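User: What would this chain look like folded?
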Amino acid sequence: MVRKADFWSGTFWLCIAAFLVWQGRDLGLGRVNDPGSGFAVFWIGLLLGAFALSVIVSSARESGPSLADLWTGTSWGRVLTVVMLLLIYAVFFERIGFVVLTIALLLVLMLVVDRVRPAVAIPVAFVTPLIVWVAMTRWLLIQLPAGVLAGIL
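Assistant: Here's the prediction, encoded as structure tokens.
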């Protein structure tokens, strides 16, 4: 049982859930009609813990792949490329801006890393960040950095 991937993933998420429950309690639960800062964190942690326990229990009842089996055939070059792209995205996010940088990131991910057809990748890479920009800034009133498009957006 200890070698099963499901057991270890369930254990990992159970630890995260315990941390969320602990932090939610520390922040203060409040009451249902007057929730405190930790109300949602606490209950999300409990729900996550229940899901994690169900994964652990099902891993004890059923056979599954070992932890080592999950990593066979992994393309580590792609993994490292995506990690580096996300780090670059984080560094330049405010200077270049959400829309331009997200379009560039999606283009590189879809055309170079995952090799999606250009007829699909280009429209998705341009339309999706614009829709997200409108939804976040206009409807939800969440500020995203405009960067180089500050006068236009």
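Residues 76-149 form one domain. If you want, I can go into more detail on any region.
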